Amino acid sequence: MPQYTTEINRLIIDTGEKWDEISSLDNDFVESGEAFDYAVIDNEGRLLCYTKEDMSTTVSSATGHYDIIRDIGVNGETAGKLIVHNPYAEQKHSSDVRNAIMIGSMAALMIMISVVYFIILRKRVVDPFRKLKNFAVRVAGGDLETPLEMDRGNIFGAFTESFDIMREELKASRKREEAAVKSRKELIAELSHDIKTPVSSIKAMVDYLELVTQDEETKETLKSINSKADRIDKLVLNMFHATLEELEQLEVNPQEMSSREIENIIKECDALKRVTEADIKDCMVYADKLRLEQVFGNIFSNSYKYADTEIRVTSFFDDGFFVIEVSDKGGGVPDEELDIIMEKFCRGTNAAGKEGSGIGLYISHYLIGQMGGELTCRNNGEGFTVSLSFRLI
Known about the structure:
By secondary structure, the chain is α+β, with helices and mostly antiparallel strands. The protein has helices spanning 5-17, 19-22, 59-64, 88-140, 157-212, 216-238, 259-269, 289-306, 360-370; strands at residues 28-29, 38-42, 47-50, 68-74, 77-84, 255-258, 275-278, 284-287, 311-318, 321-327, 374-379, 384-392.
């Protein structure tokens, strides 16, 4: 509040001298001859006069507004009070209005600058980037023939040529990959032929030994070897028609099959004799015997490699499906890996230092699905459990 000490003191003296005239007033509005507004009240709090509407006219309201309150003396006694108005609220409001106008003007200016900047940014950055994005989408979709339009007038101009060179390299790489795939298929066909020859020799020697041996235990062993050789022969035959990268071409021929056959497959696949319990209930299911040998072979192989414990096989019926669960006690896998453990080439953290390619469960999951069933995995508290669901006949 401005300091008007001298003027206020002079006003108090003038008011005291004219008190008889002023005390006769009653709530009268008077023109202020001073640089400030004021009001005069008597000792009873009666408003005598004031110079401004909406100003403090009582001691309590004046105190709340930080107005100046001075006693008016007449003949050595206090006759009334002078209330000098504090204009801080009006000044603050005026200042707030000016600030609001200034801020609004600055905001409008910034919006205009932002709009201009956005237009420039869109023309110089966004549109060229969209072209690069569309080009990337075309390339990802396999279109390696359409070149990227060159435009050196934007921020990405220097990169367009590099991106088009990348397209050319991808195109050349695809051709090399196709040639490599063709070569690999030819190699697999040749290897398959080479493998079939010694397998046939093994089968012939085993057949001979079965004829000449008299020991029943030896005959059982030879029969098992013969059975394994048959499996190898059948699997090698499939290598002519599919590779791991072309899994969908693996032929699956599900048909009616007794659960007793599955029990025999489990016994044959358990090469290390780790299955301590095999509870397989009697029923007829829809499955492919050859592919089941692959599935159980993969499951037992994984258990031997990662758990190396006894294996328990149980079965039960569940809503039109026959479920077989293969469980070990090897500690299982981290819970966060359960959702990805059946993906192609995915190996859990427990596979460190152990040989493997990460496709066993992936292939098994695919084969069971082709039979109309489902393969799922979970931790059982002690180890790992693989559940196989087969359609009931």
